[in-house]
Amino acid sequence: MRKIPYILLIAIIFASCAPQKRLARFLQHHPELQTTRVVEIHDTVVVHDTIIQQPDTNTLNLTLNQILKLDSAANADHSITDSPSCTERVETNGSAAELKALGNGKFQLNTITKPDTIIIHDTVPVKGEAEVPQYTTEIKEVPVIVHEQNWWQKILCWLGAALLAWLLIKLGMFIAKKWIKPV
């Protein structure tokens, strides 16, 4: 039970150190590092869409003369003018059409569309331009002089180096006398 407050405290500390917040805070203090540039976009969008078509019925009343004007083979036999029981029906999967003879040279054309579901899968290319933030992340080396020696410190340094060199020469001569025997 005592672990829960510690876990919450750690979670709050980690959330407050999010990289987005640190970057935003850094850019507040250094706005010269942020610029924008225009980028050309070439992308493809896939569209999945469903269209539900509701059933529909349209009725059109025509005369024989109007039908004969529409028919390119109008020179055929015109003996169907007085037959009120004549009905022609054409039907497909998605729709139907029905032509009724009403008598006295009048006809009725009924078009019927059945309910249907159309599913569209399409790929649309997208082209355009967008502004993208750009951050300057160049590293510039600036020479920093931490400590520069005074003139007397430089002299002491050279004297110490000379003393070490003299001691190494003496040590080499001592070893040479000790190990090498004259012939």
Strand order of the largest sheet: 2-5-4-3
Terminal-residue CA separation: 90 Å
Order of helices and strands: HHEEHEEEEH
How much of the sequence lies in strands comes to 35-45%
- The coarse silhouette is rod-shaped
Mind describing the biggest β-sheet? Answer: 4 strands, antiparallel
How big is the Rg?
49 Å
Describe the structure.
Among the domains are: 55-114, no CATH class; 150-183. Helix content is 33%, strand content 38%. It is built from 4 helices and 6 strands. It has a 4-stranded antiparallel sheet. Strand 4 and strand 5 form a beta hairpin.
Which labels suit this protein?
183 residues, alpha+beta, four-stranded antiparallel sheet, two-stranded antiparallel sheet, 6 strands, 33% helix
Topology:
Elements: H1 3-16, H2 19-29, E1 34-53, E2 56-63, H3 64-70, E3 87-91, E4 95-103, E5 106-113, E6 116-135, H4 151-179
Antiparallel strand pairs: 1-6, 2-5, 3-4, 4-5
